[in-house]
Design goal:
376 residues; 3 strands; mainly alpha; three-stranded antiparallel beta sheet; 3% strand
Length: 376
């Protein structure tokens, strides 16, 4: 289809094709295909623990995939100004939904993070993360170019507001991820390291307070470090899956540990990959994600806009940290947090959020993106 697009083609499609990072787009498509295949092989086993039909999760995954892909592609065509406007709109909607979660949200596993719309449930945090990365990048860059706007102060206020809403949901994992995004942007902005000397202990203090005052957090932490077999059940099954898979796996659909993993299609999807396709396949997934991050860093290094540099930095931090947390939890290195593996884990909210994330990333990393940005 695109092989016939000439470099001289000045249409929207032509300009997009020759400016977008086609390598990253191809690698993301590969992750989407892997995710679809793993949903088909892992989800039927999970439904044995529920009253749902065998292919319920597969059907929902397939339902959300076109929405995620469509969102990704449509955003990647946008200019910088349109990306900013969409991010502000998504941020406003996300804030409203985060408040709504506290009022009408569905509680699951001790946390209230989802809104039930009947046909599907939505986790607003998945939309808030990429929107915050872009909005905070713009606010921080405005502080540098127009100090009178107090952009940094507004960015801190927005960060604090979202953090309060997440902590009220007892969602420490997403709070930590949001903090990592914001700190990465502050580091790229070049703020004094003394700020981190103050902010990092403050963040650890909040985590410690949550441990002492929130029973759900107290139980999860104690269970991970000092609990018995029941507390570490999923992690033990996950490690067993990797051992069963060895280097090249047992074969497609031949995994047995996924039957014992209630979250085999979400939090522990990598364990299913490891058992059925082996450590080699897991390393392929890791390499794909690392290349996506490295491509983003390479593109950002050429940006002549502080806003674009900070936005890409925040989006890459979100993508990479989320993948790292999921993989670490699967390997028993961290407390399982419900963090999904980008584009591979089942989850409509995660797919939509990742579509938004990569769409922003592709749009802002296009060659010459800053040339259409009259505020760089």
């Amino acid at each position: 289809m695109f092989s016939s697009v000439s470099r001289a083609d000045d249409s929207v499609l032509g300009r997009w094709w020759w400016s977008v990072d086609r390598t990253t787009l191809l690698l993301v498509c590969l992750l989407i295909v892997i995710g679809l295949f793993m949903s088909i092989t892992a989800s039927p086993a999970v439904t044995q623990h529920t009253s749902k039909g065998m292919f319920t999760f597969v059907q929902k995954h397939i339902l959300f995939l076109p929405l995620s892909i469509g969102l990704l592609l449509s955003i990647s065509v946008m200019n910088v100004r349109s990306v900013r406007l969409l991010a502000f709109f998504a941020m406003a909607v996300s804030l409203g939904l985060l408040v709504a979660v506290l009022l009408v949200g569905t509680e699951l596993n001790g946390s209230r993070r989802w809104i039930d719309f009947g046909l599907f449930t939505l986790q607003p945090t998945e939309l808030a993360k990429p929107a915050f990365a872009v909005v905070s990048a713009w606010l921080l860059s405005r502080q540098r170019s127009h100090p009178e706007t107090r952009g940094a102060l507004v960015a801190f206020g927005l960060y604090a507001g979202i953090m309060v809403l997440l902590l009220l949901q007892t969602d420490l994992s997403q709070s930590g991820l949001l903090t990592t995004i914001f700190f990465a942007q502050l580091f790229l902005l070049g703020v004094s390291l003394w700020w981190f000397v103050v902010l990092i202990p403050a963040g650890l203090g909040v985590a410690g307070l949550a441990y002492l005052t929130v029973p759900y957090v107290y139980q999860r932490v104690n269970g991970f470090f000092w609990g018995g077999a029941d507390d570490k059940y999923q992690v033990v099954q996950s490690i067993s899956a990797f051992r069963n898979g060895n280097w090249f796996g047992r074969g497609p659909g031949e995994g047995i540990q996924k039957v014992a993993l209630p979250d085999a299609h979400t939090d522990f999807i990598l364990a299913v990959v490891g058992e059925e396709f082996g450590l080699f396949a897991c390393l392929v997934v890791v390499c794909i994600m690392l290349i996506i991050i490295m491509r983003g860093v390479f593109r950002a290094s050429y940006a002549r806009s502080l806003f674009i540099l900070l936005a890409i930095g925040g989006l890459l931090t979100q993508f990479g940290t989320q993948a790292f947390i999921n993989m670490s939890s699967t390997l028993g290195m961290m407390i399982p947090t419900g963090m999904t593996l980008p584009f591979i884990s089942y989850g409509g909210s995660s797919l939509i959020g990742m579509g938004l994330t990569v769409g922003f990333l592709l749009a802002l990393s296009r060659r010459g993106a800053w040339e259409n940005d009259n505020r760089h």
